[in-house]
TrEMBL record:
It comes from the Bacteria. Pfam families: CoA_transf_3 (PF02515). InterPro entries: CoA-transferase_III, CoA-Trfase_fam_III, CoA-Trfase_III_dom_1_sf. Keywords: Transferase. Residues 182-202, 439-459 are annotated as: Disordered. The keyword Transferase applies. This is CoA transferase. One of its GO terms (molecular function) is transferase activity. It comes from Sphaerimonospora thailandensis. The keyword Endoplasmic reticulum does not apply.
Length: 459
């Protein structure tokens, strides 16, 4: 099944992937959804695409292990600094009983917390108990809409059947899992880094420059995956943007980090784009377009660019501009309802929509580099958490409700860093002759200048 899924992913983006050897099987995580198979397929497709990019004539063997992929989908749970785990959830984030069901509030960022409190008519400093009482007197959909109108993030628990009747679900069903299109009237060289070095022994993505304009979790996982195969990844944040402690470190292996304020320093980002191969962004749909950094703008700055957009619900339809996170998408699309007994939310045993979308994004980016090498042009990749959820739903069900959590034995490594000694899950997926690894520990935010580290540009 998993090998077939990987082949189908390649066909969906118009690239021929080499065979991937799969070890292990589902169920490997406690869920009725085949999360292990999905994890192995996503990681396996990314690995196969990298192998094809590195050795286009005779790609080396690629391998993915189901347990390793599943544990990688839980990477933040295993991450430690000096033996201490990170709590990634803010006090007010969580599930709340409403008058007619359940609603989840995502309050990890202060401005989202404040929006939720405004929507519920509560003062700053309100407690979780205050929020619970406010939600109990309102319907779940009322809370969802009120919080959304205030600029916050919430999701009412729906059944699968309930979600399938929603207008946004119908729009999502019409979209490809990994959208890959050539940008109109784009040009660009057909050559790309890696071709001239295909037999030099360098890492598979050596010479590929990736701008990471993302936070929490799918985008950072995508860029981290590319870094594991040798891409130069520069993460661009800003001092005023909030981050989730722990996650911002755990997803930053192998990257450099700089700060750019787009309000006052847009030219600094343009300079980086002009020398980049891939730009990954996960701002709310339309946000960067309004600042002159949409796909068409990027292609004009750097013909041959690969633009990657990650969103919660896609860029089209009534929810096309809605903010969202993995846990909320699980609630609204029926996963949290079906994964338990329906009486209260039961999330997946991993942030599978985030991690799945992250590996699919990395896969899409490399697939675009393959298409660019063969056809030239600039390319646009689109991935959404809700479309990944539909794909997972379409994979069927497994008898995994009582399966124990998988062991991480043999899958962890340690690395010294500015944050202490870090324990982390090694990147899944193997390529013969080029095992993925992160060459550097997570940097401090904004530690590096807004410039590329390598002296020369594209190959």
């Amino acid at each position: 099944m998993i090998e077939t899924l990987i082949k189908e992913l390649g066909e969906g983006v118009g690239v021929a992937l080499p065979d991937v050897r799969v070890t292990g099987d589902d169920p490997v995580l406690p869920s009725v959804f085949p999360v292990g198979a999905a994890a192995a397929a996503c990681a396996g497709a990314a690995t196969a695409a990298v192998a094809a990019y590195w050795r286009p004539v005779a790609p080396p063997e690629a391998l993915v292990d189901v347990r390793h992929a599943a544990v990688a989908f839980q990477s933040e749970r295993h991450f430690q600094a000096d033996g201490e785990n990170f709590d990634v959830w803010a006090p007010l984030s969580g599930d709340y009983r409403a008058d007619d069901g359940w609603v989840k509030l995502h309050c990890n960022f202060d401005h989202h917390r404040d929006a939720a409190l405004r929507a519920l008519g509560l003062p700053a400093g309100a407690t979780k108990e205050d929020v619970a009482r406010a939600c109990e007197s309102r319907t779940a959909l009322d809370v969802e809409e009120a919080v959304t109108r205030e600029g916050g993030c919430a999701g009412a628990m729906r059944s699968r059947a309930g979600w399938l009747t929603h207008p946004q679900a119908r729009v999502i069903a019409e979209q490809p899992l990994v959208g890959l299109t050539r940008l109109p009237d784009s040009s660009g060289e057909s050559g790309s880094p890696g071709i001239s070095r295909a037999s030099s022994g360098e890492r598979p993505l050596s010479g590929v420059r990736v701008l990471d304009l993302t936070r929490v979790i799918a985008g950072p996982v995508a860029a981290r995956t590319l870094a594991a195969h040798g891409a130069e990844v520069l993460r661009v944040g800003a001092a005023h943007l909030p981050e989730v402690p722990g996650l911002v470190v755990e997803t930053a292996f192998g990257k450099r980090s700089c700060h750019i304020d787009l309000c006052s320093e847009p030219e600094a980002l343009r300079d980086l784009v002009r020398q980049a191969d891939v730009v990954i962004q996960a701002y709310r749909p339309g946000a960067l377009n309004a600042r002159g950094f949409g796909p068409a703008d990027l292609a004009a700055m750097r013909p041959g660019i690969v633009c990657v957009d990650i969103s919660a619900y896609g860029s089209r339809g009534p929810w096309g501009g809605r903010r969202g996170f993995d846990s909320l998408v699980q609630m609204v699309c029926g996963i949290a309802h079906e994964n338990g007994d329906g009486s209260r939310p039961a999330p997946l045993p991993a942030q599978a929509l985030d991690h799945g979308s992250g590996f699919l994004t990395a896969f899409g980016a490399v697939a675009a580099l393959l298409r660019r090498r063969a056809e030239g042009g600039s390319w646009h990749v689109e991935v959404s958490l809700a479309r990944t959820a539909k794909w997972l739903d379409d994979l069927g069900r497994v008898d995994g409700a009582g399966v124990p959590q998988p062991s991480a034995d043999g899958l962890l490594a340690t690395m010294p860093s500015a944050f202490g000694t870090l324990t982390y899950v090694r990147p899944p997926g193997l390529i013969a002759g080029a095992e993925p690894y992160w060459a550097s520990p997570p940097p401090r935010q904004g530690e590096h200048p807004a410039e590329w580290a390598t002296a020369t540009g594209r190959g």
